[in-house]
Amino acid sequence: MREEVDYTEAVETFKDENLVRLEPWGMNVDHLRLTITGREGTPYAGGKFMFEIKMGDNYPFSPPYVYEHTLLWHPNIDSSIPPGKINICLDLINPELVGKVDIKTGASGWTPSKTLTNVIEALKGQIHCEPPFFNPADPLNFEAGDQALNNYRKFDNKAKEWTKKYAMN
């Protein structure tokens, strides 16, 4: 079962990574809880951000469904979108971009050769503000994207405020 292989690979890859925690949501490894801790030097420092990952019946031919549960101020994640919908702007997990490449950015959609580890690395890049995964020029949350591009100090302050309010224990 590909889900088990990908889960085992991801656990092994991130076993020494203190900013990433991956565990089954329930009894099966096709429904996972991923917690990414914000890295120092970012507006998300010290915050714990929880993602739900579901590998559907057509996995690995379709990307996993990923939903970010922790409220955060981020250009590429929109906390106002309810569960069941996509609240993360990331080509890799967009079901409409399977097998496609964005000529302008070089970003590629899901292919069966991609793995859960690829998804976790991309989500970690978003929380750790690493380009190309942190991409305010292609926002899902347009207000956060505009702030990150045109008034970073205002963006940084609001992201830190939300991190402290919603992502700290």
From TrEMBL:
<dbReference type="InterPro" id="IPR016135">
    <property type="entry name" value="UBQ-conjugating_enzyme/RWD"/>
</dbReference>
<dbReference type="Pfam" id="PF00179">
    <property type="entry name" value="UQ_con"/>
</dbReference>
<feature type="domain" description="UBC core">
    <location>
        <begin position="1"/>
        <end position="168"/>
    </location>
</feature>
<dbReference type="InterPro" id="IPR000608">
    <property type="entry name" value="UBC"/>
</dbReference>
<protein>
    <submittedName>
        <fullName>Ubiquitin-conjugating enzyme E2</fullName>
    </submittedName>
</protein>
